[in-house]
Amino acid sequence: MQNNTTDRPTFVTHLECGKTKARYAADQLLGLSDVGSPLIVRYDVEGISKALSKEELRSRPADLWRYREFLPVRQTKNIVSLGEIMTPLIDLPSMQKGQGRLIVKDEGRLPTGSFKARGLCMAVSMAKELGVSKLAMPTNGNAGAAMAAYASRAGMETYIFCPDDTPEINVREIAAQGAKVWRVNGLINDCGKIVGGGKETLHWFDCSTLKEPYRIEGKKTMGLELAEQFNWQLPDVIFYPTGGGTGLIGMWKAFLELKEMGWIEGRLPRMVAVQATGCAPIVKAYDNGEQHAELWQDAHTVAAGIRVPAAIGDFLILNAVRESNGFATAVSDEAIMDARHEASIKDGMLMCPEGAATLAAYQQELKSGRISDDEDCILFNCATGLKYPLPAVDARIDLNRTIDYSTL
Amino acid sequence: MQNNTTDRPTFVTHLECGKTKARYAADQLLGLSDVGSPLIVRYDVEGISKALSKEELRSRPADLWRYREFLPVRQTKNIVSLGEIMTPLIDLPSMQKGQGRLIVKDEGRLPTGSFKARGLCMAVSMAKELGVSKLAMPTNGNAGAAMAAYASRAGMETYIFCPDDTPEINVREIAAQGAKVWRVNGLINDCGKIVGGGKETLHWFDCSTLKEPYRIEGKKTMGLELAEQFNWQLPDVIFYPTGGGTGLIGMWKAFLELKEMGWIEGRLPRMVAVQATGCAPIVKAYDNGEQHAELWQDAHTVAAGIRVPAAIGDFLILNAVRESNGFATAVSDEAIMDARHEASIKDGMLMCPEGAATLAAYQQELKSGRISDDEDCILFNCATGLKYPLPAVDARIDLNRTIDYSTL
Fold first, then answer.
1. CA–CA separation, B233 vs B231, rounded Å?
2. % of chain B with per-residue pLDDT over 90
3. Is B141 left (phi over 0), alpha (psi -120 to 50) or beta?
């Protein structure tokens, strides 16, 4: 049987505070840095480029673990995997304007139906490697389901807290995957406080976005995959639905590592952080030239995954957006739902609302002129559209009556 | 960008009646044979083995179209694709008994969340190649969604008829993907009659299971993938949830073609048709030594996808099961739901009820002795577990009160 969890050399040298660049030893259990900033995993990049070639990569099975040398897990036995396939690229011919290609990277194909699987398979594998047996997390839904699935598989206990308007299907999925889960009358940052508050009593490890170092490394594989799928010639613009921002930060990290290795050259893609007008802290900070984002008041949007009023990695998101010559932009719920409908009926691509937000942003920014129609654009569909409500259907046929086919 | 829809030589020689072996010309629009039997696509298998090598295959992107030489679509421009990735193999360490490996092939990762995408991407591509603009189908849910998505992408109209207890999410998904869809107060064979009845008035093409020749060819790729993923050394037993049976027939066809090419040798896997005790026509026919199955009365099971009271390809299913030295078996709804729960909380694998039926069958047949615990077994999880109901969750935390962590 094809096996991608073969032993491979690993190259982590240390961890580094995202803010002060202070150095932390690898291979120990860490959360945030001493100044409360996310920790970034650093590698012997030269070592990777000596150990691995593009040709060798091509011969490996098409999943996330093909990039093992770029990843932190030391021992193969600690890999917790549910089949993290390389996600497909799907063009949207009916939605594309001009010559620039419009392509969806469909992350809904990953385990538990969302891109959260990338981060959580890495976080749970590292938790296993570092001896953790109990995990906790606040979630708008998909991250919780991913953590529950991987942790259950690894034999760990999980405690998960969701805002009370988290879609029913997500809460049920989390429980079905073996986690203890609660609805909380607050938003995700309120749930995060519960996780923080319970550490002393329950001795769980906090797997919140960017509060542990390895979810970024999992999400980084989105950038590695994109680079390889595009034959190491990256597209012009990447639209990314931005809540906690781990994926945007992770992809940018991937591109910088690949550039340092000499595997990609020239201009990197412009990173566009997409938020909803009802919750757009990063957009506001970007527009105001700030390094950090303020807490967004009264956050609301149909796209629950990007309803994140405060992101601990805000400065890392803003850095990546600015360094890449990208931007941050917000779209309305109406534009999101219109885009979702249009892509589904015209191009057969049923996106999640967060994914549809990137399509709405593409449409909006073509009009604004911030992108042009000859640029190749990637949209991230971060979860399967099937987890989200769809309009009801009323049409019926009664077999007790003669069917008038001309009326169908 | 990686591209798997490159021009390739094609090798279809003709079509053949599944019953009489009468020959029909390729490249024309056909439904059933003159005697009302499914038509089987035949290839110049020697031509394939000259044009393609295992090494060449390995270098292609990991999706269904890598097997282009084994497939009927002549012109690349007619390929209608939504990213049909090679589906992952996921072991179930907690559910495995003995030394034989227990592995799920997770078909829920395909477009529209089910293995129906394999058959329908082929049927719709061929419909496009043969000039069809209007399609109709009876469905228990997943096939309809797949047809709707591909047909909408191809610019075709679709008419879809569902039994009235088809899960709400499936009916909504079908409509969201651009189809006209009706609920019907009957079972899938009643819906099939509506499709037959409307042909004259509405001039649609009938895409029912096995009533057109190409869905088998799409499903055949499950067998090609399995063979390649297992390095051309197939596992011992394949448990397949069997409604219309296209996949079982298709896989068996794949194995025979590969054997004819000399790409696989020795004993082929035993094919096990899994049904529910509430709808088990194939099991009854198998047990009674019949060639055909009788219509099952009062069909009912929680696994809607295998609630098929009469399968037009019954004799082809029974042939494959018998030729392979396999068998047919039925499991109870209770066993299905127990197996689903156990795999999800222990191994992180949330299966659909039909997929869980194969796990229940594995457990049952280990006890019966029809399989042994040193055999490597494949279970087909035919759709994402997320499309199916999950138990409700009640736990809440009220931020207006002090949280007593010791009670969590």
1. 6
2. 94
3. left
- B153 and A348 within 8 Å at the Cβ level: the answer is yes
pLDDT digits (tens, 9 = 90+) for B85-94: 999 999 999 9
The mean pLDDT of chain B is: 96
Q: Is pLDDT of A284 > 80?
A: yes
Arithmetic mean of pLDDT over chain A: 96
Residues of A with CB below 8 A from B150's CB? 348
- What lies within 8 Å, CB to CB, of A344 at 6+ separation is A350, A351, A385, B149, B152, B176, B177, B178
Looking at the predicted structure, is the pLDDT value of residue B33 above 80? yes
For residue A358, the SS3 value is helix
In chain A, the residue whose alpha carbon lies closest to the alpha carbon of B89 is A83
Q: What are the chain B neighbours of A101 within 8 Å (beta carbons)?
A: 1
pLDDT for residue A71 is more than 90: yes
Look up the pTM and report it.
0.97
- Under 8 Å between Cβ of A159 and A136: yes
Question: Which of A381, A85, A89 shows the shortest CA–CA distance to A229?
Answer: A89
Taking every pair of Cα atoms in chain B, the longest distance, rounded to a whole number of angstroms, is: 78
pLDDT digit string (tens) for A36-62?
Answer: 999 999 999 999 999 999 999 988 999
Neighbouring residues of B53: CB distance < 8 A, sequence distance ≥ 6: none
Six-digit token string for B15? 């079509």
Residue type, A372: S
| CA distance linking residue B380 with residue B375, whole number of Å | 16
* Residues B408, A198: C-beta atoms closer than 8 Å: yes
Using CA atoms, how far residue A128 sits from A154, A178, A204, in Å, is 7, 17, 13
Q: So what's the ipTM on this one?
A: 0.96
Residues of B in contact with A230 (CB under 8 A): 1-2
Which residues lie across from B328 on neighbouring strands? Answer: B273
Spell out a b/e string for A146-159, using b for 16 or more CB atoms within 10 Å of the CB, else e. bbbbbbbbbebbbb
The answer to whether B185 contacts A399, with C-beta atoms less than 8 Å apart, is yes
A159 touches chain B (CB under 8 A): yes
Q: Is the pLDDT reported for residue A74 higher than 90?
A: yes
Nearest residue of B to residue A226, measured between CA atoms: B1
- At A199-246, the pLDDT tens digits run 999 999 999 999 999 999 999 999 999 999 999 999 999 999 999 999
CA distance B273 to chain A (A): 23
Residue (of A269, A285, A182) closest to B398 by Cα position: A182
